[in-house]
Write a structure and sequence with these properties.
mainly alpha; three-stranded antiparallel sheet; globular; 38 helices
């Protein structure tokens, strides 16, 4: 069925449904009206018949009946229907499709194939996915635009989504959720879940995912690529609707779409039809020469048609022949030939237009905000800046580029902001024709523009939206920057030679705050490389090395982290008498302490933290007090890992005193830090077995993190993970207590409490697994810690075999990251032992627990708190009552020592 016939059929079907509904409503109103009239007539007859008789009475009654019927049938529940209509308008936003090119022709086969894929005549209704892939410039977005406009009347919602990066796609999905009235929530996952539910309940939608670009770094090194894995979290999982994807990625789509469409250049028939419409000429032979010369490449044909129109070239005239000869003289690709002539022409008319294109060629290809260009135009070269001082002249310049199909313009400046775009192939061509002098000038200008726009405090929550919008441009301007400190200052580099390294440092800080440590490491690495060449001071170089060390530490690359930290410390040692280096030295000592803590060298780690504390104490109130407080907290973490819980709590108390006890008020970073301290106190309480205190402290910390940092924040997930484990343990305690009691009411109450605790634990752990699962490739050790909690929860829920598989996966990750004798592996084995015993493998359980005991004793000492659970579970495995009693006695001695820091005897 053709698109037009299908539309007529569906329109007729909808009209019939509306007519049938109105007829049913009319029948109901008629019945209601008849009943009302009968009742009214009976009431009035008794009153009127005494004073009226004969024909007058009959006429009077008939008039009353007609009047009431007219009121019932004509009157409509206007308030209700208008309210429903208003709600519908609010619920479904208008489409945001790009304008359909008035020159679009042909592609009938491709449109018919999309129709069959997305709107099959047979088969069950549900989510259907179509994929259009092909090289740049073949018209993928134009085809998607045409399909979306052709089927606009058949969809309840049509939305165009920019998918050039996962972050940008997420922003567009969240914007859609806002437009359809979904309640705001600090968790993006929650908002997306609500959006998926809305789409499930509102059928016949179309979402166009335009220009999908994915980072395949998380894909396996061998085997076929599967883009479904990377895109799935941002696709609605169910519902009756269509998803149309355009992309340059050729492979890896069969999981989403069994029959992806590869779009090629125009065939001759479609190409000629396009040129006829674009040029207004029917001289097919002359147009065929142009199409053949350009290889029927759609983007090249569009550029040629725009040039012919703007230059007022007649296809039948001599100037057309001259144009063909100039194209023949070009040795570049077909589209580059047309770019060359179009840029030469517009550059001769308005030199500043070519300058704008040069600037945009170093930015991301889409979403260049007009407001950013104007707000920070002072950092741009004078030629372009002077034109931008006249906004009307600048608008005319942009429209000239749009007319030549060299740039796109989106937004009207009233309901949505104005943004500019430039095709990636145009960008590549413009950069290829720049001289070294020009490349230096405009790459620096792009860097200065984005550096000026990028928030100064990217770690603050309110800066996230601006950072997310600018990150594609950061990636573009820092990919292959041309940079030098020119002594004459002609290109502006000498005016601000550190703009690039400042931008790299802030972008790295933003990614670090998002806990995207691998990405942050890339930015900090390039910053250190440039600073090592002499850009900036040695203090800045030491700070860059420290930032690199911190990312490696967070990625569990401890050897590399130590080497980078030593480089930063060496720079500090070379400037011992310079107070400016003391703060960097203190941070290096703190990080070194953390590295040694991970290696179980607690005494040395405490020494480095004490050195940092002496620096902060000497400086006093001259520095930010939060850094001093964090150092006390980190010292407490070392004590806690070493099993000295009382010392750890003392450190946490001193840290809290430094920032004050303002509860939920005060500086936001202080509020979050106090929540961190409550988290740490809760973890100590959990280690001690005080689960009520642990739940109280962790719940309070989790609430602060959710409100201040959002549920997608890594630290929020960490708190949720610990809280889920506490609730799991409380649920198991309640279940054990229910088995020991003979009181049926108490048994029922305890079982209900156990079920509630486990359900809450499951609810908390789900989003954490989803978040950390995305980071599994680069940060497997953090994912393994979550698997530990999940495995224990599965055990508590009776899913023994799944629990064993989960814990074995965690063990494998730890062995790969830290080796077979690290205490992280022992923690996993201490959880695995009781699961194996519950599954009937007593011998296997005892073997794993003995391995855990050996590792703990060797790495942490004979009285470490981690051994309490090991000895308790070993006692359960022991068949000899005396041996079981001995093991429980050991566990009791260690547990008692946790409250006074004494060594278990």
């Amino acid at each position: 069925m053709s698109v037009s016939n299908s539309g007529v059929f569906i329109g007729a079907r909808k009209q019939f449904a509306v007519t049938r509904k109105r007829f049913a409503v009319g029948i109901r109103r008629l019945a209601t009206g008849t009943t009302a009239v009968s009742a009214l007539a009976i009431a009035l007859m008794g009153i009127i018949k005494e004073k009226t008789s004969g024909p007058v009475l009959v006429v009077f009654v008939v008039l009353i009946v007609l009047a009431v019927l007219a009121l019932v049938l004509v009157a409509r529940p206007a308030t209700q229907e208008s309210g429903t209509a208003e709600a519908a308008v609010r619920a479904v936003p208008p489409n945001n499709l790009p304008f359909r090119s008035r020159y679009f022709v042909g592609r009938k086969k491709e449109l018919a194939r999309l129709e069959r894929t997305l709107r099959p005549a047979k088969g069950p209704k549900g989510r259907r996915v179509g994929v259009v892939h092909g090289t740049g410039g073949v018209g993928k977005s134009q085809l998607a635009t045409a399909y979306a406009h052709d089927t606009l009347a058949e969809h309840s919602l049509t939305r165009w989504l920019n998918a050039t990066s996962p972050d940008r796609l997420l922003c567009d999905l969240l914007e859609l959720a806002t437009l359809i009235g979904i309640t705001y929530h600090e968790s993006k996952t929650v908002v997306l879940t609500r959006l998926w539910s809305w789409l499930r309940d509102h059928p016949d939608w179309l979402l166009v995912y335009d220009n999908v670009q994915l980072d395949d770094s998380g894909q396996p090194g061998e085997g076929p690529v599967d883009h479904q894995q990377g895109l799935q979290p941002l696709l609605p999982p169910e519902g009756v609707g269509e998803i149309l994807i355009t992309t340059q990625l050729r492979e890896g789509w069969t999981g989403l779409c069994p029959d992806p469409l590869e779009l090629a250049v125009y065939d001759e028939a479609d190409g000629l039809a396009f040129l006829r419409k674009r040029t207004g000429s029917a001289a097919d032979e002359r147009l065929r020469r142009l199409g053949t010369q350009l290889g029927w490449q759609p983007l090249a044909l569009e550029q040629a048609g725009a040039y012919i129109e703007q230059a007022e070239i007649g296809v039948d005239g001599e100037d057309y022949e001259e144009y063909l000869q100039r194209l023949s003289a070009q040795t570049a690709d077909s589209d580059a030939k047309t770019f060359e002539l179009a840029i030469e022409r517009i550059g001769a008319q308005q030199p500043a237009a070519e300058d704008l294109m040069r600037l945009c060629s170093f930015l991301a290809s889409e979403d260049v905000p007009r407001a950013t260009l104007f707000r920070y135009r002072s950092v741009l070269p004078d030629r372009l800046r002077l034109v931008m001082d006249d906004q009307l002249a600048f608008t005319r310049l942009v429209l000239k580029l749009v007319d030549h199909s060299l740039m796109t313009r989106h937004g009207d400046g009233r309901t949505e902001p104005v943004t500019y775009g430039i095709h990636p192939r145009v960008q590549i061509f413009i950069r290829s024709r720049l001289t070294g002098h020009e490349r230096l000038e405009w790459s620096q200008a792009a860097v200065r523009l984005i550096e000026a726009a990028f928030p100064l405090a990217p770690e603050q929550l309110e800066s996230r939206v601006a950072c997310e919008r600018l990150m594609p441009h950061v990636d573009a301007v820092t990919a292959e920057p041309a940079w030098a400190a020119d002594s004459d200052g002609e290109l502006g580099a000498a005016r601000d030679p550190e703009a690039l390294v400042r931008l790299l440092h802030r972008a790295g800080g933003y990614q670090n705050h998002r806990c995207e440590w691998k990405s942050a490491l890339g930015f900090f690495g390039r910053e250190a490389e440039l600073r090592g060449l002499g850009t900036g001071s040695e203090q800045c170089l030491a700070t860059a090395h420290l930032a690199i060390a911190r990312q490696h530490y967070l990625l569990a690359h401890l050897d590399t982290a130590e080497a980078a930290c030593r480089r930063a410390l060496a720079l500090c040692d070379a400037h011992k008498d310079d107070d400016a280096f003391q703060q960097v030295r203190a941070q290096c000592c703190r990080l070194f302490g953390g590295i040694l803590r991970e290696r179980n060298r607690f005494r040395e780690a405490s020494g480095y933290l004490e050195a940092a504390l002496r620096i902060y104490e000497f400086q006093g109130s001259g520095w930010e007090v939060i850094d001093w407080a964090v150092t006390e907290q980190e010292a407490g973490m070392i004590h806690r890992n070493a099993g000295r819980h009382t010392d750890a709590l003392d450190c946490y108390e001193r840290a809290g005193a430094l920032v004050g006890g303002g509860g939920s008020t005060g500086l936001e970073e202080h509020v979050v830090f106090r929540a961190m301290l409550r988290r740490d106190v809760g973890i100590v309480a959990q280690d001690r077995g005080d689960l009520d205190t642990a739940e109280r402290e962790l719940s309070a910390a989790h609430e602060v993190f959710r409100s201040k940092r959002g549920e997608e924040d890594f630290e929020t997930a960490q708190v949720a993970k610990f809280l889920a484990d506490v609730l799991r343990r409380k649920g198991q305690r309640c279940r054990a207590a229910s088995r020991d009691t003979r009181n049926p009411l108490r048994k029922r109450r305890l079982r209900a409490q156990a079920q509630a605790h486990l359900a809450r634990a499951h609810e908390l752990l789900g989003p954490v697994l989803a978040l950390l699962g995305k980071r599994r490739t680069t940060e497997a050790h953090t994912y393994a810690a979550c698997l530990n909690k999940l495995g224990s929860l599965q055990w508590a829920q009776g899913q023994l075999h799944r629990a064993i598989d989960t814990l074995r996966e965690a063990e494998e990750i730890y062995v790969t990251a830290y080796g077979p004798d690290h205490h992280y592996r022992a923690k996993t084995l201490s959880r695995l032992g009781p699961v194996l015993r519950a599954a009937g493998d007593r011998e296997g359980a005892e073997r794993e627990l003995r391995t855990a005991e050996r590792i703990f004793v060797a790495s942490l000492g004979e009285g470490h708190p981690s051994l309490v659970a090991v000895y308790e579970f070993l006692a359960d495995c022991a068949q000899d009552p005396a041996r079981a009693a001995e093991l429980r006695a050991r566990a009791t001695r260690i547990h008692r020592s946790l409250w006074d820091n004494s060594s278990p005897s």
